[in-house]
Write a structure and sequence with these properties.
This protein is an alpha+beta fold. The protein has three domains: 111 residues; 105 residues, Sandwich (Immunoglobulin-like), CATH 2.60.40; 220 residues, Immunoglobulin-like. 25% of the residues lie in helices and 38% in strands. Helix 1 packs across helix 2. It is globular, with a radius of gyration of 40 Å. It starts with a helix and ends with a strand. 26% of the residues are buried.
């Protein structure tokens, strides 16, 4: 009995110990879980605060960037308006009665775009008009260099005196012509106070029409660019007014509305001459009979393209309507010149992926004797924002009677967009007598473009 009682007492004490220990373990575990939960809550709160700070910074950046873009947009709109005004002004000043006015329009448009680009840059940079005191103290004599009438492809020279009107020496850092048709070199030139230096400028151009250019000078110590203007009339002794035949086309009915008209063909030097042919045929004179009347210095000639099929672009005799009509004369200074035909069937070839054009799109060769050669220049004009990653390496004429070789290729300097290409055209020894009107293709590494060669075979 006593042993049984001892055992019972011992077992009761052990049970009490176990019962007493379990709550302590639960309490420790509860406290540990509470501590972990508190740490988790504190970490979550810190992360939330960090996210709020980051989000605030992002929102501030967005608002700040939007403000900058709004300012740029306003300046760009002002610049665009200035650009459109400059281009519109250039287009409005293009004469339609002298030379190839399409070439003139392209030249003026490019110059207007260049001027507009300078205005855009000035507006974007927040520039204001220059103070008169910041304008370089130089003047030009004459203020306009007029080369007068220049025959296509002929190189002429002129001189302008640049005078320093200030009391300090002037240093010309750079000089640049606005057109590849003009060449000057006055960079790194000093002009002493009261002195003047001579600037020689050369001019050459194939495209017919009135040409205006400028030479711009950067003077050390001055932000303002100063410029002197140049102009020339590229023309042959005989020309047409207007310089094109305009057959008006209705885009809604897809039919030619105006298919006939008249032009004046006259000699600039008032020398009497005869018209031998127009587009290979007899001229249709108005008020003149070549069998009875003596040669004149001016003729009224009628034109008619009513026989052209607007769908096939073929004439009644099956020939294709040409984009340029060759006018042959017996004037000693003008054996042949051309009149452009503006018609639905004579639109320029589409560019596609090509990023350059040939200018001018036709070359006047004058008179060529069998086996004789002549050299001419054309321009490889790049479209805006194009990479100059090609060059002209060959020109192939469709006719076996003409061979065209690339003599030289001069890449435009700096940000220029016109590469100069010199070509040599050679007539075969068995070339037929009469009009030369040949199509050719100008080839680069990737693409090719059309070029028309117009001339006459001399015997």
């Amino acid at each position: 009995m006593q042993r049984s009682f001892v055992v019972q007492q011992t077992m009761a004490m052990a049970a009490a110990i176990v019962i007493d220990v379990r709550p302590v373990a639960f309490q420790k575990e509860h406290r540990m879980r509470a501590m972990q939960h508190g740490q988790t809550r504190r970490a979550a709160s810190g992360l939330a605060i960090l996210m709020i700070l980051v989000l605030g910074a992002v929102m501030f950046g967005v608002v700040f960037y939007a403000g900058l873009k709004l300012g740029e947009t306003k300046r760009s709109e002002q610049a665009e308006a200035s650009s459109e005004a400059a281009v519109a002004k250039a287009a409005a000043n293009v004469p339609s009665n002298v030379g190839n006015d399409d070439e003139k329009y392209d030249e003026d448009y490019n110059e207007a775009a260049e001027e507009a680009a300078r205005r855009v840059q000035a507006l974007q940079q927040g520039e204001t008009a220059a103070d008169p005191a910041e304008i370089p103290p130089i003047s030009f004599e004459p203020p306009l260099l007029d080369f007068g009438m220049v025959q296509p492809g002929k190189l002429v020279k002129g001189t302008i005196q640049i005078r320093n009107n200030g009391d300090k020496p002037v240093f010309i850092e750079s000089s640049k012509a606005s057109c590849s048709c003009t060449a000057v070199d006055m960079s790194e030139t000093w002009i002493q106070p009261g002195d003047s230096v001579a600037m020689e400028a050369t001019f050459t151009k194939q495209a017919l029409g009135e040409k205006q250019a400028a030479v711009r000078f950067k003077i050390q110590g001055y932000d303002e660019i100063v410029a002197v203007d140049l102009k020339a009339l590229v023309a042959l002794p005989v020309m047409a007014q207007p310089a094109y035949i305009y057959a008006e086309f209705d885009n809604q009915t897809h039919q030619t509305q105006v298919s006939s008209g008249q032009i004046t063909i006259q000699s600039i030097d008032d020398m009497p001459f005869r018209i031998l042919a127009i587009d290979g045929g007899e001229p249709n004179y108005i008020g003149f009979d070549p069998a009875v009347d003596a040669p004149r210095s001016s003729y009224e000639v009628a034109w008619d393209v009513s026989d052209v099929n607007d769908q096939t672009c073929r004439r009644a005799d099956g020939s294709k309507l040409r984009r340029f009509w060759a006018v042959e004369t017996d004037h000693p200074g003008c054996p042949v010149f051309d009149v452009q035909v503006r018609h639905q069937c004579t639109l320029p070839e589409k560019l596609g992926n090509r990023r350059w054009v040939v200018s001018p799109q036709r070359i006047l060769l004058g008179e060529l004797r069998p086996g004789e050669s002549t050299e001419v220049d054309v321009l490889m004009k790049w479209l805006p924002n194009s990479q100059h990653n090609e060059e002209v390496y060959s020109v192939l004429a469709e006719s076996p009677h003409l061979r065209v070789e690339v003599v030289s290729f001069d890449r435009a300097r700096g940000k220029g967009t016109e590469d100069n290409v010199r070509l040599r055209v050679t007539a075969s020894k068995d070339i037929p007598e009469g009009l030369i009107y040949e199509n050719a293709r100008v080839h680069s590494q990737l693409f090719n473009a059309p070029l028309i060669l117009i001339g006459r075979t001399a015997r």
